[in-house]
Write a structure and sequence with these properties.
This protein has 18 helices and 12 strands. The chain is α+β, with helices and mostly antiparallel strands. The chain has 4 domains: 103 residues, no CATH class; 180 residues, Pleckstrin-homology domain (PH domain)/Phosphotyrosine-binding domain (PTB) (PH-domain like, Roll); 98 residues, no CATH class; 122 residues, Exo84p, C-terminal helical domain (Methane Monooxygenase Hydroxylase, Chain G, domain 1, Up-down Bundle), CATH 1.20.58. Strands 3-7-6-5-4-10-9-8 form an 8-stranded mixed beta sheet. Strands 1-2 form a two-stranded antiparallel ribbon. The protein has a two-stranded antiparallel sheet with strand order 11-12. A hairpin with a 5-residue loop joins strand 9 and strand 10.
Length: 633
Amino acid sequence: MPHALFLLCQQRRLVQQSEEEAQQQRGLLLLRLVRRFPRLVAAWPRPLATSNSTRIDHGLGAKAVMTRQAPAVQPEIQEDPRNPEMSAEEGEGEGHVSSVLAEATDEEIRSFEDSLRKVKSRAAYALQQNVMQNRTQIIKISKETEKLKTEMRTLRNLMAELKVNTTALRTSSSKSQEGFGGDGLASGIGPGSGAGMGMGMSKKDKRSSITDRSALWNSQMQALYKSVEGSQKFFPNSLGRHVLQNGGPWIELDNATYKSRRAMQIFLLNDHLLIASRKKRKNDGPDARGPATKLVADRCWPLLDIEVVDMAGTGDTTVGRSKLADAVMVRGVGQDTFIYRTERPESPDKNLLMLNIRKAVEELRRSLQSEMEANNKAKDTINYFASRDPGLLQNTELLETLSDVKDMLIEVGGKQHNLRWVESQMDELDIDISLQNLEPAVARVEKLRGLARGLKTNVVAQDFITFKVEERCGKLAELILHRLAVTHGLLSKTRENANWLARLGFEDRARETYLATRREMINTRSRLCIFQGDLHMYIWEISFVYFKIIRHTVSCFQACFPPVMMSVCVKWAKEMVEAFNEILARQLSSTQRGGDEWNQCISRAKEHAKFLSEVGLDFQTLVGKNLVGEEER
């Protein structure tokens, strides 16, 4: 009895020791889980059970011993003092794991760890997807930003141009009111009292002249031609040419003595400087009316060919200095110089004239530079398109048209694109053709053709796109035709190839290629039939090859091509039957007509001709037609 009690006590101690060791192992495993997955453990759902529970241990006998479970092992977690929020989450995750896995077995702990790993992998995958999506959005936003910057830059340039034009209109309007307002000889173009350009202009006309620069400039030029005799021979009226300033009365000085020579008047245009002499008008009759003087054009220079110098302070003597204080020197082509002095020293005409000349020269140089840049850009455009597509060099008319058009834009899907976008589409089409992606290539050709048809108002872009598309369409059609010739025996492939060629507009080429390939196939298969002395067997093989292939060809043609082309297929089948009749006549030429062998061969050929009745053709009467007719005669 004491020995049994001793064994029972020893067994209980061993059980308690094993339970404590298992509890310690679970605690260490929980500690590793908490340290490895702190955030995922904190997000795990809470259990309903408490940490302390009652467990019943069964001993060796029937007696049950009620024991209380020891508190769960709380693994220590070192909190990061730099991130209190992270430390709190880790502590909360530790308590959560302790409460969840307090009574879990080793297998449950491993399954819990596996589930945490799966959650971690899903979270990592979701994070990766979010990163890729955000990257795509960032790229899209950056492209939109670049486009917006370009549009804002264009808008800024347009606003600057509008400001310049508005200032020019305001200045032109004020000058027309001041210079052509009817001041007679001093201010107007005409020397008389009623010859000014702006004489009699109402307020309504002035308002309309501000809104319509072309009409204002045209009226100024017409008034200048009318007031200054011979001025039109120096510069004809052209688009954009207009008068900037009527410089008023001037006096031409001698270059050596600075003495007055004759009375002159200066007119400044946007691209020329006109010098007109004032001469007395001859009045023959006593009742002659009009001004006493007239203006005659004397000299005229393009502004870019001359240099206008202010002569103030250049005199050598006091007298010369006083004479030249209000004078200007015009140095023209060939080092010819002319000196002019204003008749009104107190008037700001000279300073205003010098200022307007400088502005006009700067504007001309700027426009000339922009024109040169545009020409260089046009040359670059020609070189770009010619280098990318040498076929354009043969179409010189289209190439010259492309060089004349600046910054051509086409609208695609509500967005404006230039011709470089068309080139990018052609590049993608070339890639599809080279990789033999036939369906995307055919779809892209249809898209570009539809785009070209929609550009009815832009003939140049329409011709350019059509030229590019048709050039590549021919290459694509040749590729599909070769594929059709190779796979003509497969119904699905033939239907697919014929559909692509029909969408490209090559239905006739597809039909001709298919029938020619089938004809060649019949000839090849018939040559494989070798005559070995049995004429009946040879005719049987030849007729079987001919009529069987004709039947399959007609059947495939009906399934792959439109019904309107069926007449061509029937004609081809008749030609094949006639070719068979030639072979039949040549083989039966040495056989007695009407004999058993002759009749047997004819009947066998007609029996094989019944194959065509399956596709709606009845050519039995054509088989051996010439032979039968000769026998009857």
